[in-house]
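One record is kept unedited as follows:
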Amino acid sequence: MAARENDAEEPSRAAGGCVLAVLGGVAVAAAFAVDEAVGVLGVAAVGWVALWRSARRLSVSSATPPPPPEPPSGDVYAVEGTTAREVRRTPGEGYLIFPVIEYVTDPDAPEEVTS
Protein backbone atom coordinates (compact mmCIF):
# COMPACT_ATOMS: atom_id res chain seq x y z
CA MET A 1 0.00 0.00 0.00
CA ALA A 2 2.80 2.44 0.81
CA ALA A 3 4.26 2.17 -2.69
CA ARG A 4 0.90 2.96 -4.21
CA GLU A 5 0.43 6.07 -2.09
CA ASN A 6 3.82 7.49 -3.16
CA ASP A 7 3.22 6.98 -6.91
CA ALA A 8 2.41 10.24 -8.62
CA GLU A 9 -0.47 9.90 -11.02
CA GLU A 10 0.35 10.93 -14.57
CA PRO A 11 -2.37 12.52 -16.66
CA SER A 12 -3.64 10.37 -19.49
CA ARG A 13 -2.93 11.49 -23.07
CA ALA A 14 -6.32 10.15 -24.10
CA ALA A 15 -8.04 12.25 -21.45
CA GLY A 16 -6.21 15.34 -22.68
CA GLY A 17 -7.24 14.56 -26.24
CA CYS A 18 -10.86 14.18 -25.19
CA VAL A 19 -10.78 17.53 -23.39
CA LEU A 20 -9.31 19.23 -26.48
CA ALA A 21 -11.92 17.58 -28.72
CA VAL A 22 -14.76 18.79 -26.50
CA LEU A 23 -13.33 22.32 -26.37
CA GLY A 24 -12.92 22.31 -30.16
CA GLY A 25 -16.51 21.13 -30.58
CA VAL A 26 -17.75 23.91 -28.30
CA ALA A 27 -15.77 26.49 -30.30
CA VAL A 28 -17.18 25.20 -33.61
CA ALA A 29 -20.72 25.17 -32.19
CA ALA A 30 -20.29 28.75 -30.95
CA ALA A 31 -19.00 29.86 -34.37
CA PHE A 32 -22.00 28.26 -36.12
CA ALA A 33 -24.33 29.81 -33.54
CA VAL A 34 -23.04 33.28 -34.42
CA ASP A 35 -23.50 32.75 -38.15
CA GLU A 36 -23.33 29.80 -40.50
CA ALA A 37 -20.78 31.56 -42.72
CA VAL A 38 -18.53 32.26 -39.73
CA GLY A 39 -18.63 28.58 -38.75
CA VAL A 40 -17.83 27.39 -42.29
CA LEU A 41 -14.96 29.88 -42.63
CA GLY A 42 -13.60 28.89 -39.22
CA VAL A 43 -13.64 25.17 -40.03
CA ALA A 44 -12.02 25.87 -43.44
CA ALA A 45 -9.31 28.03 -41.83
CA VAL A 46 -8.48 25.36 -39.24
CA GLY A 47 -8.32 22.76 -42.02
CA TRP A 48 -5.94 24.88 -44.11
CA VAL A 49 -3.68 25.49 -41.12
CA ALA A 50 -3.58 21.77 -40.32
CA LEU A 51 -2.81 20.94 -43.96
CA TRP A 52 -0.05 23.58 -44.12
CA ARG A 53 1.58 22.30 -40.91
CA SER A 54 1.39 18.71 -42.12
CA ALA A 55 2.96 19.61 -45.49
CA ARG A 56 5.73 21.57 -43.78
CA ARG A 57 6.51 18.70 -41.46
CA LEU A 58 6.45 16.22 -44.36
CA SER A 59 8.82 18.27 -46.54
CA VAL A 60 11.40 18.46 -43.77
CA SER A 61 11.24 14.74 -42.92
CA SER A 62 11.40 13.56 -46.55
CA ALA A 63 14.45 15.59 -47.49
CA THR A 64 17.08 13.68 -49.44
CA PRO A 65 19.91 12.60 -47.16
CA PRO A 66 23.41 13.80 -48.01
CA PRO A 67 25.52 11.43 -50.08
CA PRO A 68 27.76 9.06 -48.11
CA PRO A 69 31.38 10.10 -47.79
CA GLU A 70 33.94 8.47 -50.06
CA PRO A 71 35.71 5.53 -48.40
CA PRO A 72 39.00 6.62 -46.88
CA SER A 73 42.22 5.45 -48.45
CA GLY A 74 43.02 1.81 -47.64
CA ASP A 75 39.44 0.80 -46.79
CA VAL A 76 38.06 -2.46 -48.09
CA TYR A 77 34.47 -2.34 -49.29
CA ALA A 78 32.06 -4.76 -50.98
CA VAL A 79 30.91 -4.41 -54.57
CA GLU A 80 28.02 -6.44 -55.96
CA GLY A 81 28.80 -8.12 -59.24
CA THR A 82 26.44 -8.59 -62.17
CA THR A 83 26.35 -12.38 -61.93
CA ALA A 84 24.13 -14.36 -59.56
CA ARG A 85 25.67 -16.60 -56.92
CA GLU A 86 22.34 -18.20 -56.01
CA VAL A 87 18.63 -17.87 -56.90
CA ARG A 88 15.96 -19.08 -54.46
CA ARG A 89 12.22 -19.29 -54.97
CA THR A 90 10.18 -17.64 -52.19
CA PRO A 91 6.93 -19.10 -50.80
CA GLY A 92 4.94 -16.69 -52.96
CA GLU A 93 5.54 -15.93 -56.63
CA GLY A 94 8.91 -14.24 -56.17
CA TYR A 95 12.57 -15.06 -56.28
CA LEU A 96 15.55 -14.00 -54.16
CA ILE A 97 18.70 -13.32 -56.16
CA PHE A 98 22.03 -13.36 -54.32
CA PRO A 99 24.74 -11.58 -56.33
CA VAL A 100 28.43 -12.41 -56.35
CA ILE A 101 30.20 -10.03 -53.96
CA GLU A 102 33.80 -8.94 -54.45
CA TYR A 103 35.88 -7.18 -51.85
CA VAL A 104 37.72 -4.26 -53.38
CA THR A 105 40.60 -2.30 -51.89
CA ASP A 106 40.96 1.39 -52.53
CA PRO A 107 43.46 1.76 -55.43
CA ASP A 108 45.10 4.71 -53.66
CA ALA A 109 45.96 2.53 -50.66
CA PRO A 110 49.70 2.23 -49.89
CA GLU A 111 49.51 -1.53 -49.32
CA GLU A 112 47.25 -4.39 -50.40
CA VAL A 113 44.74 -5.79 -47.90
CA THR A 114 44.26 -9.55 -48.12
CA SER A 115 41.89 -11.92 -46.35
Remarks:
- Residues 68-115 form one domain.
- Residues 50 and 107 are 53 Å apart (CA to CA).
- DSSP finds three helices and two strands in the chain.
